[in-house]
């Protein structure tokens, strides 16, 4: 298997997911705007979505995938199949209880997240929370299936899966909203129906892929089978690893919550500014970070289980070089070309020139941390592959503290505005990634291969050349005035980005770096 091609395919499918997600949001905004009922839906969807990030795609995946890959490499497919069956059985029973409690406790969850809702809005949020709470069950099982498929190097289905949610909600918005409205049913409920259909589709698409590799789980449906699964040593090991992993995942969410709370005291538009800037920042971090993490985690775990630290270090070195080569130009683009991108994507209607200026500064702040944000996605799995959840957790807590220290210095000390919140997250992310990589080097797990200094210098030079061209394009075109011709502005941005990519990779080639050298086999 070619790891570079695998990472590229995951990245391409992630991009498709982001595009369909943007279309989903645009249609929702066009139909419901910022109405009270849309607020109710957002809160109702946020509850299972938050649990999904913390448990299914966070702590559970970080504990399950390394153990799964290590078990397969060390003990073979039969032992791995037994582990998957045991984990699936315990997970299924736990999800039944969790979903039942969530449906019953929906009013409490809504109150904790949105105590200021009017009674009608609150009631709608409770109804939709109850409808959508089983979504966490679907996505937990999807996380299990994705971990198995990624370990078997079947990356396409897990990467494509999120697209189904977006398409389902889009379909529900276009087809069911008019039907609900005609029958006197609250139209926004159609979006909740779309979420549930999407969850079912995401789970259903995993089954044929698992069946093809002979790893479709066998669920224990009796108390005796549950007890037997509970006694499986792998299940106990996963549960023990999940606690520190959950703390580590929670830290990122807490940091965002703190920054949102600070932003709410910085004047009208501050919170929205961070949200819009975050959308742009997530493009490179998702396309690069998620792809590399998905591809590398099972490979690192297998190498570690086999005791082959040369391969382990080589995989890590390959990933970190890709981080620098692909994330640095993205950081430069956000720094010098942020205003054209913000203007093209958002400058219309109530999003005026002042909003563009504020969001651009926040985008630049996030840009300072792109390398760190992507780097963590490579460095942290290196610890998970060693069954070490504690170190990333401790480093993440340190990054949380450091973020607030930067906030205090930049906002209170230097008087910076909302852009300081984005810059603080970016700087702390760089420190986070740096600390993780330093720890791997210190324990001898990672030995950088020769030529790093020359490689880094060439990437910096190519990025600088590209950056100069993007700076000229940003300052010699009036991107705000070009808003009178939307298609022309979008075409100009696309052409500028395409030209920048061509210049960057041409400069790399002239400096002696070719993508062919990253075609690593696994």
What would you report as the Rg, rounded to the nearest angstrom?
23 Å
In round numbers, the mean pLDDT is 84
Quick one: how many beta strands? 0
- Helix and strand content put the structural class at mainly alpha
Q: Unreliable runs, pLDDT <50, ≥5 residues?
A: none
User: Roughly what percent helix?
Assistant: over 70%
Q: Total helix count?
A: 20
Distance between the first and last residues' Cα: 5 Å
> What characteristic shape results from the CA principal axes?
globular
Share in β-strands: under 5%
Concise summary:
By secondary structure, the protein is mostly helical. It contains 20 helices and no strands.
Topology record:
Layout: H1 3-32, H2 36-75, H3 77-104, H4 106-113, H5 119-132, H6 135-151, H7 156-182, H8 189-204, H9 206-212, H10 223-230, H11 233-263, H12 270-305, H13 309-336, H14 338-346, H15 353-367, H16 370-384, H17 390-413, H18 419-442, H19 452-475, H20 486-510
């Amino acid at each position: 298997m070619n790891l570079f091609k695998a990472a590229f395919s995951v990245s391409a499918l992630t991009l498709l997911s982001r595009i369909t997600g943007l279309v989903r949001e645009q249609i929702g905004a066009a139909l419901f705007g910022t109405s009270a009922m849309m607020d109710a839906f957002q809160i109702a969807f946020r509850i299972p979505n938050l649990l999904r990030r913390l448990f299914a795609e966070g702590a559970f995946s970080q504990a399950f995938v390394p153990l799964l890959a290590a078990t397969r490499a060390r003990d073979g497919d039969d032992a791995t199949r037994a582990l998957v069956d045991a984990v699936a059985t315990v997970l299924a029973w736990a999800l039944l209880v969790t979903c039942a409690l969530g449906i019953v406790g929906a009013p409490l969850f809504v109150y904790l997240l949105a105590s200021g809702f009017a009674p009608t809005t609150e009631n709608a949020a409770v109804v939709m929370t109850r409808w959508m709470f089983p979504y966490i069950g679907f996505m937990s099982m999807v996380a299990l299936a994705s971990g198995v498929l990624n370990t078997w190097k079947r990356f396409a289905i897990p990467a494509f899966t999120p697209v189904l949610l977006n398409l389902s909600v889009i379909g529900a918005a276009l087809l069911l909203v008019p039907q609900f409205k005609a029958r006197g049913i609250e139209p926004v409920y159609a979006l909740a129906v779309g979420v549930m259909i999407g969850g079912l589709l995401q789970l259903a698409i995993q089954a044929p892929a698992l069946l093809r590799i002979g790893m479709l789980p066998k669920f224990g449906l009796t108390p005796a089978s549950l007890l037997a699964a509970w006694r499986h040593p792998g299940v106990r090991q996963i549960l023990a690893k999940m606690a520190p992993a959950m703390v580590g995942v929670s830290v990122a969410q807490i940091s965002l919550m703190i920054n949102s709370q600070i932003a709410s005291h910085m004047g009208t538009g501050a919170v929205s500014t961070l949200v819009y800037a975050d959308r742009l920042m997530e493009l490179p971090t998702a396309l690069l970070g998620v792809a590399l993490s998905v591809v590398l985690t099972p490979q690192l775990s297998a190498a570690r289980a086999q005791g082959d630290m040369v391969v382990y270090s080589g995989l890590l070195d390959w990933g970190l070089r890709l981080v620098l080569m692909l994330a640095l130009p993205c950081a430069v683009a956000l720094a010098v070309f942020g205003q054209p991108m913000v203007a093209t994507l958002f400058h219309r209607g109530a999003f005026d020139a002042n909003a563009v200026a504020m969001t651009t500064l926040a985008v630049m702040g996030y840009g300072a941390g792109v390398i760190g944000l992507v780097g963590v996605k490579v460095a942290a799995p290196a610890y998970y592959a060693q069954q070490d959840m504690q170190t990333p957790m401790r480093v993440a807590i340190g990054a949380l503290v450091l973020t607030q220290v930067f906030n205090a210095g930049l906002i209170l000390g230097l008087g910076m505005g909302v852009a300081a919140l984005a810059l603080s997250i970016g700087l702390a992310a760089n420190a986070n990634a740096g600390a993780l990589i330093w720890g791997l080097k210190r324990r001898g797990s990672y030995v950088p291969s020769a030529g790093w200094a020359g490689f880094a210098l060439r990437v910096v030079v190519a990025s600088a050349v590209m950056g100069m061209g993007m700076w000229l394009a940003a300052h010699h075109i009036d991107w705000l005035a070009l808003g009178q011709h939307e298609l022309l502005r979008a075409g100009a941005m696309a052409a500028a980005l395409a030209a920048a990519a061509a210049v960057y990779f041409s400069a790399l080639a002239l400096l002696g770096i070719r993508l062919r050298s990253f075609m690593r086999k696994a």
